Amino acid sequence: MAAKRLDESATGVFIIAATPFTENGAVDYDSIDSLTDFYIRSGVHGFTLLGMMGEAHKLSGEESLAVVRRVIARAGDRQVIVGTSHAGIDNLRRLSHEVMSAGAAGVMVAPTPGLKGDDGLYGYYAQVFAALGPDVPVVFQDYPQATSVFLPVPVFGRLVDDFPQLVMLKHEDCPGLGKVTRVREDEKRPGRRRVSILVGNGGLYYVQELRRGADGAMTGFAWPEMLVQVHALFASGKAEEAEDLYDLYLPLVRHEQQPGMGLALRKEVLRRRGAIRSARQRAPGSSLGATDLAELDNLIRRLERRLAAAGRSSPLAAE
User: Fold this and answer.
1) How many CA atoms lie within 13 A of 247 on its CB side?
2) Least CB-packed of 6, 128, 223, 293 within 10 Å?
3) If DSSP codes are grouped into helix, strand and coil, which group holds residue 146?
4) Torsion of CA 275, 3, 108, 189, to 10 degrees
5) CA pair distance 109, 123, nearest whole angstrom
6) H or E element: which one contains 196?
7) Which SS3 state, helix, strand or coil, does residue 46 take?
8) Are strands 106-109 and 216-217 parallel, antiparallel or unpaired?
């Protein structure tokens, strides 16, 4: 069954999917299947493909579409968002329409680097929305650490007012807790739509962002079941229990967020959990040394002990 189009009601965990490669650097389509199944067993509500942590910039156009089609074919009724950011709007439009035709629920677009001022940012997205047309739901990817483009809340409000196809904010500004609060306060103005907010940064500020009004997470932490369970507890009014659970995983959340090696750690954990066959990244990419692997071993053992003491199952138990 095809998933419905993305809209402002989106909530839960949209996992940023890794892209598996074989040891010789080819796309590992069998591991895409097993990884998709792993994410589904973990309870994710949707998928985000071709994100910055999905090594999208290392894929050819043909490979990108093949990955999208492979996941959509296996994802069932779970919505799939596809990152289509590109320096050229024509290329962005082409890829967006191709993935929507393949069954994607919406696309995610980051501002192109180098935009100047509020008018420059607004004008860029106005061009994007005009190119995509009114029927393509869009996620604004707010990740100034990578784009060097800051999104002021009033500009985001103008875009929400003027372009109904803007249905979600992917929030990764840092520090950015105050921005979540300001967006939610700004939405109280008469006539202003409330859009979905999903948060990233590896889940590093997940609990606080949920407390401030976020609707869930869009990130790729290698224990996605934690993200799902924390969201479910929050949704049922058990915020303290949710934070207690999150705290058990916090050392690994923090460890995975190391610049330059976070993806290597994430892929190694996914390999150990049987989700993919190889932790390889397509060149250029980072790798883990013996000391890195020993540190990871220790952190996982410590997590297993904490989970056991809390009466929860081991994260490396058979899925």
Assistant:
1) 7
2) 293
3) helix
4) -130
5) 14
6) strand 196-199
7) strand
8) unpaired
Cα radius of gyration rounded to whole Å, the chain: 19
- The three-point CA angle 158-162-168 to 5° equals 75
Cα gap 172→181, rounded to integer Å: 14
As given in the structure block, the two tokens for residue 278 are: 């190889």
Which sequence spans correspond to the domains of the chain?
A: 12-309
Residues in the chain, overall count: 319
* Interval 93-131: pLDDT, tens: 999 999 999 999 999 999 999 899 999 999 999 999 999
Can you tell me the distance from the alpha carbon of 155 to that of 157, in angstroms, rounded to the nearest whole number? 5
Inter-residue contact 84 to 109 (CB < 8 Å): yes
Q: What is the rounded CA–CA span in Å between residue 221 and residue 252?
A: 9
- By the 8 A CB rule, do 14 and 218 touch? yes
> What DSSP assignment string belongs to 53-79?
GGTGGGS-HHHHHHHHHHHHHHHTTSE
Looking at domain 12-309, its CATH superfamily turns out to be: Aldolase class I (3.20.20.70)
Q: Which of 61, 138, 58, 65 is nearest to 103 (CA)?
A: 65
* Residue 218 assigned as binding residue: yes
Global pTM? 0.94
Q: Helix, strand, coil shares of the chain as percentages rounded to 5?
A: 50, 10, 40
Q: Give the CA distances from residue 165 to residues 13, 76, 197, 238, in Å, rounded to whole numbers and listed in that order.
A: 21, 24, 15, 33
Task: Render pLDDT for 61-76 as a digit per residue (tens, 0 to 9).
Answer: 899 999 999 999 999 9
